[in-house]
Amino acid sequence: DGPAIIRYYNNGCIRYESYYINGKLNREDGPAQIRYNEDGSIQKEKYYFNGKLHKEDSPAIIYYNKTGSIGSELYYINGELQNSF
């Protein structure tokens, strides 16, 4: 359903949230970890399946610039970094 862990900045905005199933980072309908900037914009998204970085059709880690555009992407399958070229 919702995140298992939510941490906040002092200003009340969410700092990060994490989703778990059976004690392992996991989320099928979105990133299992999301880190936010203090202004509420997304800083980083990480996709996990059964505790391992994993996403078959797109990057498993996405870093965003302050403008909200994608800064870099990393591709993982079953916890192993893939050649993203």
Helix content: under 10%
Question: How many strand elements?
Answer: 12
Which spans of ≥5 residues are poorly predicted at pLDDT below 50? none
Return the average pLDDT rounded to an integer: 95
Radius of gyration: 13 Å
Secondary-structure content class: mainly beta
Q: Tell me what portion of residues adopts beta-strand conformation.
A: over 45%
Characterization of this structure:
The chain is mainly beta. The protein contains no helices and twelve strands. It has strands at residues 5-8, 14-18, 20-21, 24-25, 33-36, 42-46, 48-49, 52-53, 61-64, 70-74, 76-77, 80-81. The strands form four sheets. It has a six-stranded antiparallel β-sheet, with no helix packed on it. Strands 3-4 form a two-stranded antiparallel sheet. It is flat and about 35 Å long. It starts with a strand and ends with a strand. The model has no long low-confidence stretch (mean pLDDT 95).
What's the topology here?
Blueprint: E1 5-8, E2 14-18, E3 20-21, E4 24-25, E5 33-36, E6 42-46, E7 48-49, E8 52-53, E9 61-64, E10 70-74, E11 76-77, E12 80-81
Antiparallel strand pairs: 1-2, 2-5, 3-4, 5-6, 6-9, 7-8, 9-10, 11-12
Short structural description:
The protein has 85 residues and is mainly beta.
